[in-house]
Amino acid sequence: MSIDTQLPDETVHVASAISDEVVIELASVNKWYGEFHVLKDINLAVNKGERIVICGPSGSGKSTMIRCINRLEEHQAGDIIVNGTEMGTNIKNIDAIRRDVGMVFQQFNLFPHLSVLENCTLAPIWVKNMPKAEAEKIAMEYLERVKIPEQAGKYPGQLSGGQQQRVAIARSLCMSPTIMLFDEPTSALDPEMISEVLDVMVGLAETGMTMLVVTHEMGFAKRVADRVIFMDQGEIVEQNTPDEFFTNPKSDRTKLFLSQILAH
Amino acid sequence: MAVVDKAGPRKGGRSFTEIVNDERYRSVFYQVIVAVAVIWAANYLITNTAENLQARGMSAGFEFLTSTAGFSIAWSIIDYEPGDTYFDVYLVGIANTLIISFFAIIATTLLGFVVGVMRLSKNFIICNLASGYVEVMRNVPLLLHILFWFTLSAALPRPKNSLGLGDMFFLNNRGLYVPAPIPGEGFGVVVIMVLIGIAAAFGVTVWATRRQMATGQRFPAFWVGVGLVVGLPLLAFAALGAPLTFDYPSLKGFNFTGGADVPRAFCALLFALVLYHTVYMAEAVRAGILSVSHGQTEASYSLGLKPSWTLRLVVIPQAMRAVVPPMISNWMNVVKNSSLAVAIGYPDLVAVFMQTSLNQSGHAIEIVGMVMLFYMTVSLTISAALNYYNKLVQIKER
What is the ipTM of this complex? Predict the structure, then answer.
């Protein structure tokens, strides 16, 4: 892995905040769904503050890979170490990692029986034993940051898709995670709502959060990513700075993929 | 009709076909037809019945309720003598139906939740055990269940060779014999302590929730509550010198005397009702939990909530919306199906009132009406209570 992590795009790019500390390490990770080999020998190290965009055709294993990082999927071989804790069958370790890693889903997955504010305070109250008043204060701060404090009393079913996704981001941030995973956060949104969610994500990148983003928003990748990873058929085919990745792709598979998604 | 006339073709200048094809007029038209048909049918039934009663010299009315029934009832939970009135028989039947329904509903609900969750287990043995139970039980008619358990209970040993549990409980081919509690002086205090304990446990739960919301600190409210409900009465019981004695059943000659007895028809009916209806409860619970998308669980896990809290805070509150409506009809079915007791001679409302009382008094219309009134009252009460609960847990959209 010869990644030049010190050279983000200097013009439009969000200032890089990468440190030397490795917070996520995947070593020879393998996973099968029955006979289907979905992750083939994945090796990846993510530094603190690094923003990684993962792209690739559907079924290439990109979602599965980031879902292994908080064990929504189990890997069958290899090691995953998050913030120095090894992800395995140890329940305490799984809990510790999940507290530290936030996740945003394609389908938002807000709790429909709870108000927006309750969605945000549920985990701080029950996982962190936080007083309700304090949890609500923090929740309001994050709802302010995603620009929907006025919707706090509403229920998820009363919000638009873009608003729901911003609430989902705020809900994750309320647990003060050190790492955020985004699994195609804008794929279920109407075009005019994509930018309001991406704006929030750019804002989050500016705070120096470690982010792993599975997305096809190449504009976002160019503006925010420190590194772009291209996956195909369960393998990391190519990874590079966004500049190099888009202007000078190495493998034929990457060139084909880029020509398809950038064609229109 | 007035609406149809007002908008007739002469005034509005609309053609006949336009009106025939207008959905508003159509709906009024059909409603009028139905109303006329219902009124005609009711009128026909009432006049026909009145004529027939008159022709036979019979009188309709509820005076018979105050006359002596004159027959004995095999078993009842409220006091009854053959010299009591038909109205007393009605009450005995209601009490017997309610007591078996009460136990059956409680057991069905608890077992249903257990079996429903078991069927969703990833554990091969547990899951298949529950599936096997569901498939076997629901593919046999309830009447067969009842007859099966009743027949099987006849194969139990005679009183002399009863299956005993510590000289207190005895099961034989006549029924189940249990110790009868005899409250002594001051036992009322113990009962009051139970109530105080329940109130205190409730208070502690509310306080613990408030404190957690205010400070974030947890309190083991459940276990403290259990301690209060169990401990307070126990303390009072010991302090008052154990003011409760039991009358134990004992074998005298060919049968047991003393204690309290539950006839085998009751046991067989309860067994059959519970085994059969548990299946529907379990399926309702399973469907309810499955109706909550897996994404909800994943979101909850990713926030760091443990599986047990995820179930309690995220999955079950949403699952209940889907569980409650089938649960309502299941509870009502338990009450209504308990009337199959008639097949094995358990003296429920239908057996004592619609059979014996009806045959003796001949007041079929009144008796059937009273029995229907009872079942409708119970069903509507259950339905109203659970519908109210269901409204509380509905999800707001738009």
Answer: 0.91
